[in-house]
C-alpha cells in the first residue's frame, strides 16, 4: 500500500519519458501524481488514530549489514505525506504552461515527489538517507535549469549547504549503527534500543551531526542564507515544493529522530536551540520587512515561521524527564506539527501567488513597483489577502491554531522565551500589511492597467489551498486529532 | 432560552457570505436589504434573548474547536446579563447605522463590498461579546480588528486611508501580543479559558499572577480601546467612511476593552491593577480631551472625544464600578453614534468638507442635522436631563466614593476637570460648524430620510437613555446588571448632592466657556499650551520621530549589512572551508556538483536495482 503510493509518481515519471506529445506528458504527470494522492487518501481511510506506527512494510534488502526496505506511517508522517501529495499535484497543475524541456521537468517533479514521500515513510536509516539525498537532485536541477538569472550560484549553494548537512548526519547514523546490538539501520529498533543512551559524548556528537543536517534544512538561524537565494532563483513550482515540503524534512527529522534518539542531549541544549529559534522568528520577520523582492520577502517569512516550529520542538525537548511538563510538551509539539502543515499550505500558496504576478504578468517582483492592484485584480487580491492574513496568524485561519498551540505549549515550559517569540506576531503583521499596501492599495499604477485576473490553471492551483486555510482554521479537529494521538504517544514514550 | 436567541451572530455572518461571494452581481437595492435585513434579524434575536432570559447565565457549545494534549477549548457561546446588554446595544445601534449607510453610501462604487465588510464586522463583534471563553473572545477581538482595518482603508486608492488602516492593525497587534501572553498565563495558572471559570477562580490566583495577567489583558484593552499609550491609531481611523467611524470607532468595537474587563471583573480587583486601570483611564480622558480642544477636523474632534470618553469607562471599572462603566458605554454608544452620524450628514451636504474652518452657519440649511448634533453634544457635555449626564455623573460619584474610601483622588479630580473640558470642546465644535455665517458651499442639502430617521431614533435614545440608570425609576439597566457584578463593592444608596452639583456646574461652565470663548470664530491664543495639546503633549514626536524610524532602520540594517554582509559570508566561508579547502567556493566548478548529483542518482538506481534483482 505505502510502496504503491511511494513509487506511483516515479513510475509515472519513467512512463512519460516514452512520450513526445506535451499534452500526454502533462496528463501522465498529473495522473500519476493524483493517483498517488488517491492512494494516500485510501491510506487515510484505513488509518487507525491510535494505532501508532502502521501499514508497516518490510523487505530484506542487504541483510548482511542490517539494511532492509522498511516503511510505515503514523500520525506525524501522515499529515506530511498528505501535504506532499497536495502540493505536488498543485505544482504540476501550476506548471501546465512550462514548455522548456517539459519531459525532464515533469520527470524531476515526480521523482521529487517519490523522494519526499520516501523520507516521511522510511523506517530504515539507510533508506531514509537515500531518499533524503535523492530529494536534493531534482531540486538542484529544477533550480539550475529552470531558474532565474543567478540560478547556478543558487543551485550550488543550495546543494552544498544541504550536502554538508547530510554528511554530518551520516556520521550520526553510523554512530548509532555501530553502537547498536545487533547492528541495524532499523529506526524503530534503534529508538527502542537507545544505543547511545549511556555514552554521552558519542550521543552529543551524533546529536549535533543530525542537528546540523536538520537545522540547515529547516533552516534555522544562522544557517538560513541559502534559502532566499534558492527561492529567488527557483521556478515557482520549485519554490512551492521547497518551502512547502523540503523545509519540513528538517523539522520532521527533529521530531522523529533527534527527539526520540537523543532526548538527554536535546534536553541539555534545548534552551540554546530555543534561542536560535527566537532569533529566527524575530530576525526573519524584520529582514522580511526590509525586502523589496516579493519572493525574498516570502522566503524570509519562512525563516520566521520555521522558527515557531523550532520553538515548539525545543520546548518539548526541554520538558524531557520532567513529567509535570509533559502536557505542555504535548501541546507544543502539536502546535509544531500543525505549523508544519499550516506553513506548507500557506507559504505554498504565497509562492504560487508570487508566481501568478511574476511568471506570466508583470515579470517583476519588486514590491514597490506595484500599487493599486486591488482595483485591477480583485480575485487575485482577495486570495492574496487571505493567504497573508493566514500567515500573520489571524484567528479563524489555519496559521493561528498552529501558533497559538506552539505559544501555549512553550509558555508552560519556558514562559520568557514564549513571550519573546510573540514579538514575532507584531512584526509579521506589520510586514505583511505593508506588503499588501504596497502591492494592492494606493492609487492604481497605470503601468498595470491591462493585467488580466487569474486564469483557470491558477485558480485550480490556489483555491484548494485557500479553502484549506479557512477550513482548518475554523475546524482543525480532523487534522489535529491525527497529530495529537501521535504526539501524545511520542511524549509518553519519552518519559 | 429561545433557540432563536443563539442565532444572533450567524445572521450577519450569512449576510457577509452572500454579499462577499455574489454581492457584486446583485442589484443595489437587494444588497441594502441583505445588509440591513440580516442585522435586523440579529437584533430581533437579541430582543428574543432578553425576553426569554431566565435570569441565570446560559451557555451553548457548538463544537470542540482546538484540542491538543491537555488543552481543549470549545467554540461556545454565553448569554448572561452582561452579554445581553451588549448584544442589544451592538445590534440595535448597528442596525440604525446600517440603515443610515444605505443613504450615505448610495453613490459609492463598492456598495456591496461595503455592506459585506459591515456585516462581517457585526458578526465578529457579536461573537466577541457572546464568546464563552477567552479564545473565542479573542477570535472576535481580532476579527473586529480586521474589519476595522478593511473599513478604515475602504477607499484604498487613497494613500492616507491605506496608511491609517495598516496603522490601526499594527498598533492593535502590539496590544494583542500582550493580550495573548495574558491568555497563556491564565491557561498555565488556571487550566481553563472559560470566562466564567476565570472569574470564579481569579481569587485563587497568587497576587503576582493576578496582577501580571490582568495588566497584560489590560494592555490589550489599551490597544483596542485606544487608551494611552496605544491610542494613536484611532484619530487616523477617521479616514474610513463616517458611518464606520460611528459604528466601529465610537459605539462598538472600541468599547471591547471595557467589555472585556467588565467580563473578567474579579481578575481586575487587585489594588495594583485597580490603580493602574483607573489612572490610565483618567489620564487618557483628560489627555484626549485637551487635544480635542485644538483640533480643526470635526471628525477628529469626535475621535479624541471618543478616546476621552472611553477613558471614563476605564476609570469606572478602575474604581470598582463596572456597572457604571457599562452604563456609560451604552449611553455613549447612543450619543456618540449620533454625533458621528450628524457629522456624516454635514460631510454629505458639504461634499466631504469636514475642516471646521470651512464650515459655519449650517444650522439654517441643515436643521435636523444641527438639532441632532446639539442633542448629542449636550449629552456628551453632561447636561441634564440628557443621557450622558446620568452615566458620567454616576462614574464621578463612584470615583468620589473611591477617593473618600481611601483610594486615589486622581480619578475623581481628572474626571471632573475633563467634564469641563469636554463641554468646552463640543460647544466649540458645535459653534464652528452650525452657527455664525460662513460656509462656502452655496446650497447644502439636508440628508435624505433614510439618513435622518436613524439619527432621530438615536437622538431619542440620547435624550431618554439616561432613564436606564435613573435612580428615581429604579435604574432598569443597573438593576438588570446588578447580579452580574455581585462581587463588586455594594453601592451605598445615599450619594448626596455634592457630586451631581459639581458635575452639572462643570458641564454648564464648559458650555458657557465654549460658547463665549469662540465667538470670534477663532481659537483664543493659548500660546505654548495650544502647541502642547496639538503635539499630543509631545508624544507624537516620540512615536513618529523616534520609535517608528528606529524600527525601520533596524530592519534595513539587518537585511543589508548583517544578513548579506556578515551571516551569509560567514556561513558561505565556513561551507567553503569545509568542502573546497581554503580557496573557497570558486574552485568547485558547476560540473562537479552536477556530477555529484548525477552520482547520487545513479547510485540510488543501482541500489534499488540490487534490491529488485537480488
Textual characterization of the structure:
The complex is a heterodimer of chains A (495) and B (614). Chain A has 495 residues and is mainly alpha-helical. Chain A has 20 helices and two strands. Chain A has a two-stranded antiparallel sheet. In chain A, α8 packs antiparallel against α10 and α16 crosses α19. In chain A, 66% of the residues are buried. Chain B has 614 residues and is mainly α. A two-stranded antiparallel ribbon of chain B has the order 1-2. In chain B, α3 runs antiparallel to α18. The chains are: A mainly alpha (495), B mainly alpha (614). The interface between A and B is large, with 81 and 68 residues.
Key traits:
heterodimer, A: 495 residues, mainly alpha, two-stranded antiparallel ribbon, 20 helices, 2 strands, globular, B: 614 residues, 3 domains, 23 helices, 69% helix, 3% strand
Low-confidence stretches of chain A: none
**Sheet having the most strands of chain B:** 2 strands, antiparallel
Indicate how many domains the architecture of chain B comprises: 3
What is the β-strand count of chain A? 2
Amino acid at each position: 500500500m505505502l510502496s504503491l503510493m511511494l513509487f506511483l509518481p516515479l513510475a509515472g515519471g519513467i512512463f512519460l519519458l516514452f512520450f513526445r506529445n506535451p499534452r500526454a506528458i502533462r496528463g501522465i504527470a498529473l495522473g500519476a501524481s493524483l493517483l498517488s494522492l488517491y492512494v494516500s487518501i485510501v491510506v487515510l481511510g484505513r488509518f487507525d488514530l491510535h494505532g501508532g506506527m502502521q501499514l508497516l512494510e518490510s523487505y530484506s534488502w542487504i541483510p548482511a549489514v542490517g539494511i532492509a526496505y522498511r516503511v510505515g506511517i503514523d500520525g506525524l508522517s501522515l499529515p506530511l505525506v498528505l501535504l506532499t501529495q497536495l502540493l505536488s499535484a498543485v505544482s504540476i497543475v501550476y506548471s501546465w504552461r512550462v514548455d522548456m524541456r517539459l519531459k525532464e521537468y515533469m520527470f524531476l517533479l515526480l521523482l521529487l515527489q517519490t523522494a519526499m514521500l520516501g523520507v516521511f515513510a522510511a523506517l530504515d536509516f539507510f533508506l531514509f538517507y537515500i531518499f533524503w539525498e535523492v530529494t536534493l537532485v531534482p531540486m538542484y536541477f529544477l533550480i539550475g535549469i529552470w531558474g532565474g538569472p543567478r540560478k547556478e550560484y543558487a543551485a550550488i549553494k543550495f546543494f552544498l549547504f544541504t550536502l554538508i548537512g547530510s554528511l554530518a548526519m551520516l556520521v550520526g547514523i553510523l554512530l548509532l549503527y555501530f553502537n547498536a546490538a545487533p547492528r541495524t539501520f532499523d529506526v524503530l529498533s534503534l529508538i527502542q534500543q537507545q544505543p547511545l543512551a549511556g555514552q554521552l559524548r558519542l550521543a552529543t556528537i551524533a546529536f549535533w551531526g543530525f542537528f546540523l543536517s536538520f537545522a540547515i534544512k529547516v533552516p534555522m538561524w544562522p544557517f538560513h542564507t541559502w534559502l532566499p537565494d534558492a527561492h529567488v532563483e527557483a521556478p515557482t513550482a520549485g519554490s512551492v515544493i521547497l518551502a512547502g515540503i523540503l523545509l519540513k524534512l528538517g523539522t520532521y527529522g527533529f521530531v522523529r529522530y533527534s527527539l526520540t534518539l537523543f532526548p538527554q542531549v536535546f534536553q541539555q541544549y534545548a534552551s540554546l536551540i530555543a534561542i536560535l529559534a527566537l532569533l529566527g522568528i524575530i530576525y526573519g520577520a524584520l529582514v522580511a520587512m526590509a525586502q523589496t523582492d516579493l519572493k525574498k520577502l516570502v522566503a524570509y517569512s519562512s525563516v520566521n515561521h520555521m522558527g515557531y516550529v523550532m520553538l515548539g520542538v525545543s520546548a518539548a525537548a526541554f520538558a524531557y524527564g520532567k513529567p509535570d511538563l509533559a502536557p505542555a510538551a504535548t501541546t507544543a509539539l502539536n502546535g509544531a506539527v500543525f505549523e508544519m502543515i499550516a506553513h506548507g499550505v500557506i507559504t505554498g500558496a504565497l509562492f504560487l501567488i508570487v508566481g501568478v504576478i511574476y511568471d506570466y504578468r508583470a515579470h517583476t517582483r519588486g514590491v514597490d513597483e506595484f500599487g493599486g492592484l486591488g482595483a485591477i485584480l480583485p480575485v487575485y487580491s482577495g486570495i492574496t489577502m487571505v493567504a497573508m492574513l493566514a500567515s500573520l496568524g489571524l484567528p479563524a485561519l489555519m496559521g493561528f491554531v498552529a501558533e497559538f498551540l506552539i505559544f501555549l505549549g512553550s509558555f508552560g515550559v519556558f514562559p520568557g522565551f514564549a513571550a519573546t517569540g510573540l514579538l514575532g506576531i507584531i512584526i509579521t503583521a506589520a510586514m505583511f500589511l505593508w506588503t499588501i499596501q504596497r502591492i494592492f492599495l494606493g492609487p492604481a499604477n497605470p503601468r498595470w492597467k491591462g493585467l488580466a485576473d487569474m486564469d483557470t490553471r491558477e485558480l485550480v492551483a490556489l483555491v484548494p489551498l485557500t479553502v484549506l486555510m479557512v477550513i482548518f482554521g475554523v475546524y482543525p479537529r480532523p487534522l489535529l486529532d491525527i497529530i495529537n494521538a501521535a504526539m501524545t504517544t511520542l511524549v509518553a514514550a519519552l518519559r | 432560552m429561545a433557540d432563536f436567541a443563539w442565532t444572533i451572530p450567524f445572521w450577519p455572518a450569512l449576510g457577509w457570505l452572500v454579499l462577499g461571494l455574489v454581492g457584486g452581481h446583485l442589484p443595489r437595492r437587494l444588497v441594502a436589504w441583505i445588509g440591513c435585513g440580516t442585522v435586523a434579524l440579529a437584533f430581533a434575536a437579541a430582543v428574543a434573548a432578553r425576553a426569554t432570559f431566565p435570569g441565570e447565565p446560559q451557555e451553548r457549545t457548538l463544537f470542540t474547536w482546538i484540542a491538543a494534549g491537555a488543552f481543549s477549548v470549545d467554540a461556545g457561546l454565553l448569554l448572561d446579563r452582561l452579554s445581553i446588554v451588549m448584544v442589544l446595544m451592538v445590534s440595535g445601534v448597528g442596525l440604525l447605522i446600517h440603515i443610515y449607510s444605505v443613504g450615505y453610501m448610495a453613490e459609492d462604487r463598492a456598495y456591496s463590498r461595503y455592506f459585506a465588510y459591515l456585516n462581517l464586522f457585526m458578526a465578529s463583534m457579536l461573537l466577541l461579546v457572546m464568546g464563552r471563553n477567552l479564545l473565542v473572545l479573542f477570535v472576535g477581538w481580532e476579527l473586529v480588528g480586521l474589519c476595522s482595518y478593511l473599513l478604515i482603508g475602504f477607499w484604498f486608492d487613497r494613500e492616507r486611508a491605506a496608511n491609517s488602516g495598516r496603522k490601526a492593525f499594527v498598533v492593535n497587534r502590539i496590544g494583542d501580543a500582550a493580550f495573548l501572553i495574558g491568555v497563556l498565563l491564565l491557561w498555565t495558572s488556571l487550566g481553563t479559558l472559560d470566562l466564567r471559570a476565570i472569574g470564579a477562580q481569579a481569587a485563587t490566583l497568587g497576587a503576582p499572577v493576578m496582577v501580571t495577567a490582568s495588566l497584560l489583558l489590560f494592555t490589550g484593552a489599551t490597544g483596542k480601546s485606544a487608551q494611552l499609550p496605544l491610542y494613536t491609531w484611532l484619530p487616523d481611523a477617521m479616514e474610513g467612511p463616517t458611518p464606520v467611524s460611528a459604528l466601529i470607532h465610537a459605539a462598538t468595537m472600541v468599547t471591547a476593552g471595557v467589555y472585556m474587563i467588565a467580563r473578567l471583573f474579579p481578575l481586575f480587583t487587585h489594588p495594583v491593577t485597580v490603580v493602574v486601570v483607573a489612572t490610565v483611564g483618567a489620564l487618557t480622558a483628560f489627555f484626549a480631551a485637551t487635544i480635542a480642544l485644538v483640533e480643526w477636523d470635526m471628525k477628529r474632534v469626535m475621535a479624541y472625544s471618543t478616546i476621552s470618553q472611553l477613558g471614563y469607562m476605564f476609570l469606572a471599572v478602575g474604581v470598582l464600578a463596572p456597572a457604571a462603566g457599562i452604563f456609560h458605554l451604552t449611553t455613549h454608544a447612543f450619543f456618540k453614534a449620533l454625533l458621528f452620524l450628524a457629522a456624516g450628514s454635514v460631510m454629505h451636504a458639504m461634499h466631504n468638507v469636514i475642516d471646521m474652518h470651512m464650515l459655519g452657519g449650517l444650522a439654517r440649511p441643515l436643521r435636523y442635522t444641527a438639532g441632532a448634533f446639539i442633542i448629542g453634544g449636550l449629552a456628551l457635555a453632561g447636561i441634564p436631563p440628557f443621557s450622558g449626564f446620568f452615566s458620567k455623573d454616576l462614574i464621578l460619584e463612584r470615583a468620589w466614593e473611591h477617593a473618600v474610601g481611601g483610594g486615589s483622588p486622581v480619578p475623581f479630580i481628572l474626571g471632573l476637570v475633563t467634564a469641563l473640558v469636554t463641554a468646552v470642546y463640543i460647544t466649540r465644535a458645535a459653534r464652528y460648524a452650525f452657527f455664525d455665517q460662513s460656509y462656502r458651499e452655496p446650497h447644502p442639502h439636508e440628508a435624505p430620510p433614510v439618513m435622518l430617521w436613524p439619527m432621530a431614533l438615536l437622538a431619542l435614545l440620547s435624550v431618554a437613555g439616561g432613564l436606564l440608570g435613573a435612580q428615581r425609576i429604579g435604574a432598569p439597566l443597573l438593576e438588570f446588571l446588578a447580579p452580574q457584578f455581585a462581587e463588586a463593592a455594594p453601592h451605598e444608596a445615599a450619594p448626596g448632592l455634592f457630586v451631581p452639583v459639581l458635575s452639572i456646574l462643570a458641564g454648564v461652565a464648559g458650555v458657557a466657556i465654549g460658547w463665549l470663548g469662540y465667538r470670534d470664530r477663532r481659537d483664543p491664543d493659548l500660546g505654548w499650551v495650544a502647541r502642547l495639546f496639538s503635539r499630543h503633549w509631545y508624544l507624537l514626536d516620540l512615536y513618529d520621530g523616534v520609535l517608528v524610524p528606529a524600527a525601520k532602520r533596524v530592519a534595513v540594517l539587518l537585511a543589508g549589512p548583517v544578513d548579506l554582509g556578515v551571516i551569509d559570508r560567514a556561513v558561505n566561508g565556513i561551507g567553503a572551508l569545509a568542502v573546497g579547502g581554503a580557496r573557497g567556493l570558486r574552485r568547485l566548478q558547476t560540473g562537479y556538483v552536477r556530477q555529484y548529483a548525477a552520482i547520487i542518482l545513479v547510485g540510488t538506481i543501482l541500489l534499488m536495482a540490487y534490491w529488485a534483482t537480488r
